[in-house]
Amino acid sequence: WLTAVRGTGEFAQGRLVVAAVAEAKRARADGHYAAARVALERAHATAFANAPLVLNEAARLADDMGDAPAADRLFLQANQSPDQTVDGYIDHVRMLYRTGQNERAMQVIREGVGRFDNDQKPFIALMIAVARQEGRQDEVQGYLRSCQAYGNAALTKDCELAAGQSATAEPGPSIPKLPTLPFGLPHF
Q1: Model's pTM, two decimal places?
Q2: What is the dihedral of CA 31, 96, 105, 27, to 10 degrees?
């Protein structure tokens, strides 16, 4: 059965897409945007052109190149897919936050929270950052208390940084590192 699946054109296209997106990510991380665009063009030429894997990377590239409207459109298109990921939503929110579109950022957060079992945890540091950027200190403190209640040292550290506080917790080796872009770190 597996041999038959690997022999299909769809499988071959899927392999090409995964390799092209990985190449685009590396090129984008190195600041080689033209090379990233060429790699993504290979992915766009397949039946998987509208898959979140491809759309999210195209959105990240557009964002890195300073085209927030195009990035927003691509993220929104990916969000329409049942296969969209939490990371796609988070990167979308980061882009909106960085470009000062706080109301839209909160809207995308609400959509993401609703889509992923009403779980605020992946978005809580960004919620704090948006509230802080808006000067809503009461919300910052409320979100920070919610974050600390999760009992996750790495997440608490991210939330404290988002709130403008010095981070006191050290992440343990078994705790996954959550994105912390709102505080000026590079994103990929």
Answers
A1: 0.82
A2: -10
